[in-house]
């Protein structure tokens, strides 16, 4: 796991990851003595059912004699909890182990002097290097370690909130004066990979003026995850309520007043366990009475916090979750207008269209009363990622046979799944 620059050095780094211990599980399969000697049908006889347990208990008491050094009873169940294989002991981590996005990487680092003489004026640096950046965790340049005696060591602890996936390198360097006064430079590299602890799959559906967001969270780790918080933070002009099957009324997430003071964590089991969350989203009412169009496909993002079996915390924030493009058409006249046809113009044949309507090319809107408004949405398909501009949205009054000027362009952000 560690690589070092060639050359003879008095110092060497030793790195140990600091994390909670795990339960020690004994691999041998244990058995109940009754299963070894008799079958289940023996308990059909009332006399046998009454006498067998005391008989087996007396034999077990004899076999547990401390003078018996053969440990012949080590595979027998002495307590129902023995069936789980837990020995009651905790096992300290023997390696870096699995490191997941959203966790805090904590490492105990020791720089050892393996020579027979003192090493002086030591400048130590510890950094985390990823594919995107280099993060400084420790730098003793302004206050170098004065000396480390022969056979001695200098210890320190570093922490880093893991926010990137993929390959990571813990880079430890030391600049020091050797016994002969030579200034030496020691680099050592400790590599590890950060994996994704969970996946979040979302599905957005719109029914009339209400949007429903379903989020499915899947556990990819080898330990159970206890969800402390899975909250949806809506984008501006949106409000959100979480819908629960066991509640008569939804819980409002848009203000702190609707949050529960205490709620038990939700267990998502290891190795593919899932849990679904459902949110109801609504656009805020328009605040002005003029002809306008408002468009956005950004709904908000999820804040997720969890703990593992022994309480180690983790936290993730999803990217912005996208929905359909919502539009609002207002009648700024003193008379009723409509019905209307809404379409995405394709007049510019030479212009490449990166966003197209998914489904019917024309949307029918009912009449709009004087100074009234109506909401509608476009279901679109994007052919390119990033910020895309939707232009050429036209509205036609089918009764008056009048086509209005194209509505203002709408910008949306398209990202990959």
Automatic annotation (TrEMBL):
All copies of domain Trafficking protein particle complex subunit 13 C-terminal, residue ranges: 324-405
Domain Trafficking protein particle complex subunit 13 middle: 198-321
Top-rank taxon, per record: Eukaryota
Segments forming domain Trafficking protein particle complex subunit 13 N-terminal: 9-194
Protein family membership: Belongs to the TRAPPC13 family.
Protein name, entry field: Trafficking protein particle complex subunit 13 isoform X4
A cellular component annotation (GO) from this entry: TRAPPIII protein complex
